[in-house]
């Protein structure tokens, strides 16, 4: 009977183990930190307003940009506010999808790490709010100089936060990268 020697396992045998997600983690962590820090300041500075208008506010640019303290139980524009549990579940599903489909999303590319770092940081920021308070804290209040019938009849954009901004920027950047990749494959 022969005994075989165990060979040490090398990371080179696992190509995904060698990929550094440093950019993704740094960006997601920075966005999460800034989001939670700004919300913490807002919570301690302004009284909470359960309804949108007229909230106590800090005027940054009169008639254009205000800081408010509003709770949003739903998604964008307060949609699906009766489905708080489902919104939290969807956030976990999206995070799991990103993790398990990281090869498909080409997260080894630094540009994709930027897009998904913003997306993940934003999702985590709003998810923490939902666990901690039961709603997402929104504080950036923009008043536009024009109206859009049905959508923005008074020119007031729905209040949002840093996490919301990061999610939108991350998604748009991913779409731009995907379109650029598909165009280069056509040529």
Beta fraction? 5-15%
Strand order of the largest sheet: 1-2-3
Q: How many separate structural domains? A: 1
Low-confidence stretches: none
- Helix-strand sequence: HEEHHEH
- Fraction of helical residues: 40-55%
The biggest sheet amounts to: 3 strands, antiparallel
Core attributes:
3-stranded antiparallel sheet; mainly alpha; globular; 48% helix; 187 residues; 3 strands; 10% strand
3D structure, described in words:
With 187 residues, the protein is mainly alpha-helical. The protein has four helices and three strands. The chain has one domain. Helix content is 48%, strand content 10%. The chain has a three-stranded antiparallel beta sheet with strand order 1-2-3. Helix 1 packs parallel to helix 3. The longest helix has 25 residues.
Summary?
The chain is mainly alpha-helical and 187 residues long.
How is this fold's topology laid out?
Layout: H1 22-45, E1 58-61, E2 65-72, H2 84-100, H3 110-133, E3 136-142, H4 162-186
Antiparallel strand pairs: 1-2, 2-3
């Amino acid at each position: 009977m022969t005994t075989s020697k165990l060979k040490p396992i090398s990371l080179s045998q696992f190509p995904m183990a060698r990929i550094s997600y440093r950019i993704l983690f740094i960006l997601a962590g920075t966005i999460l930190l800034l989001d939670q820090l700004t919300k913490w300041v807002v919570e301690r500075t302004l009284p909470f307003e359960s309804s949108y208008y007229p909230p106590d506010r800090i005027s940054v640019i009169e008639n254009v940009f205000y800081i408010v303290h509003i709770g949003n139980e739903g998604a964008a524009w307060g949609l699906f506010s009766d489905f708080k549990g489902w919104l939290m579940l969807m956030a976990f599903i999206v995070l799991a999808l990103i993790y398990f489909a990281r090869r498909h999303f080409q997260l080894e590319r630094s540009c994709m790490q930027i897009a998904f770092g913003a997306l993940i940081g934003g999702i985590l920021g709003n998810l923490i709010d939902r666990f901690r308070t039961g709603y997402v804290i929104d504080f950036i209040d923009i008043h536009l100089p024009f109206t859009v019938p049905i959508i923005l009849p008074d020119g007031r954009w729905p209040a949002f936060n840093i996490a919301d901004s990061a999610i939108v920027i991350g998604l748009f950047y991913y779409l731009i990268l995907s379109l650029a990749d598909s165009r280069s494959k056509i040529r």
